[in-house]
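Continued from yesterday's entry.
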Amino acid sequence: MMTATVTRLFANGKADVLVTPENCAEGEGCAACGSCNAKKTLTVKASNPLGANVGDRVEIRSGIFKVAISRIIA
């Protein structure tokens, strides 16, 4: 899993999350994100089933073509 920060919410239950290379778990869904390989910060659209809010630090789980918020970090 990777940590990220929620930057934008959408009415369809998705959110933009900001991922940095430092927060990547190597080999954890790089095909969906690519931040580790690009060595840059990326914004990724994720499913938001937990209802995270803008500014929340979250853990995201990623796989090919799908990224989802899996835990809100308190």
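--- second protein ---
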Amino acid sequence: MKYFKVFEIAYLVIAVVSAYEVYQEWNVDRTRAYMFLFFLVFSLFMFFFRRFYRRKFQNRDKQN
């Protein structure tokens, strides 16, 4: 079950790196910045999605 948490952290790392790239590329290459902005939003969505389901499964396992 710990590897689920590792993937959550990986999504956060991807989000931070993408945010940095958006900041760096915004005035240089707007198209590339939009691509990293998509990665940022997607990785944040996946982080919260994975966390929700991990907690849901943990609560279900505790009840049994």
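The radius of gyration is 15 Å. The CA atoms of residues 8 and 48 lie 8 Å apart. Will compare against the first tomorrow.
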